[in-house]
Amino acid sequence: MNAVYEDVTPSPADLIRSIAEQGYTLQASLADLIDNSISANATAIDILVCAEREPFQVFIADNGNGMSEEELSVAMRLPSQSPLNQRSTHDLGRFGLGMKTASFAQTRRFTVLSKKVGDQRYSGRTWDLSLLEQGEWKIAVNNSDEITKLLSKYKEESRSRDNELEGFEPNTLVFWDGLHKFEEFITIETVDVHTYVYNTNKPLHMTCVKQLQRAICYC
Ligand SMILES: Nc1ncnc2c1ncn2[C@@H]1O[C@H](COP(=O)(O)OP(=O)(O)OP(=O)(O)O)[C@@H](O)[C@H]1O
Ligand SMILES: [Mg+2]
């Protein structure tokens, strides 16, 4: 007798939404990206949080080895490589998922720009939940205008801080375009954020955003 099968291909957007709710805190998400920077031999990681207006945005930039366009394209996949592959002992990655799952836990749209250390030209890719709503697994390939605009925005934000990293050139930049959990919290709870943060333990994440206005890690 022939076996009978059913197609169980998941809805891309729903699967991502579910993955995003697997218990990642903001700190755990940032830690996952910091692991990646360390694995790429970064000596400086610049984390900028822009929470003055919505959408809140976060830049995580590092001066590590960076990625070629082909490497970036692979890195954005779910997973980017088999967990069965042997890795170097220096590589903190194991599952090929962290950058995507940690980012989607915090945002609905994120972009990664990267270039190999020493190169001039960046490549960029964007995962966007609204694109996945169309039912296909695809990401956007950023054009040079989008890349230039995002880099300028990062540099502008960086310059506006007192503790700008002098001479820092990012080779990889992860950009979270929106921190929907925090934004929704503020919209729903029409209370003064500071009062609420300090009087209850619920919006711990918001406290983190404030504390993380500028966090710089030297590895
Ligand atoms: N900041 C970075 N600089 C250079 N390459 C990076 C950077 N971030 C990610 N990558 C590349 O993208 C790949 C995918 O990263 P991702 O975090 O998704 O998975 P992983 O680190 O391999 O495994 P894990 O799921 O355990 O984190 C990495 O293996 C690495 O090759
Ligand atoms: Mg990783």
User: How are strands sequenced across the largest beta sheet?
Assistant: 5-4-3-6-2-1-7
Helix content: 25-40%
Largest sheet report? 7 strands, antiparallel
- Enumerate the distinct ligands: adenosine-5'-triphosphate, magnesium ion
Poorly predicted sequence stretches spanning 5 or more consecutive residues: 187-219
User: Which geometry do the CA atoms define?
Assistant: globular
Termini gap: 61 Å
Mean pLDDT: 85
- CATH class annotation: Alpha Beta
**Rg estimate, integer Å:** 18 Å
Please provide a written account of the structure.
The chain is an alpha+beta fold and 219 residues long. It has a single domain, classed as Heat Shock Protein 90. It has 9 helices and 7 strands; from the N terminus they run ααββααββαβαβαααβ. It has helices at 12-19, 26-39, 69-75, 98-104, 129-132, 144-159, 180-188, 193-199, 204-211, and strands spanning 44-50, 57-62, 109-114, 123-128, 140-141, 172-177, 214-218. It has a 7-stranded antiparallel β-sheet with strand order 5-4-3-6-2-1-7, sandwiched between helices. A hairpin with a 6-residue loop joins β1 (44-50) and β2 (57-62). The N and C termini lie far apart (61 Å). The structure holds adenosine-5'-triphosphate and magnesium ion. Magnesium ion (MG) binds next to α2 and α4. Residues 32, 35-36, 93, 98-99 line the site of magnesium ion.
What can be said about this structure in brief?
With 219 residues, this protein is of the alpha+beta class. It contains nine helices and seven strands. Strand 1 and strand 2 (57-62) form a beta hairpin.
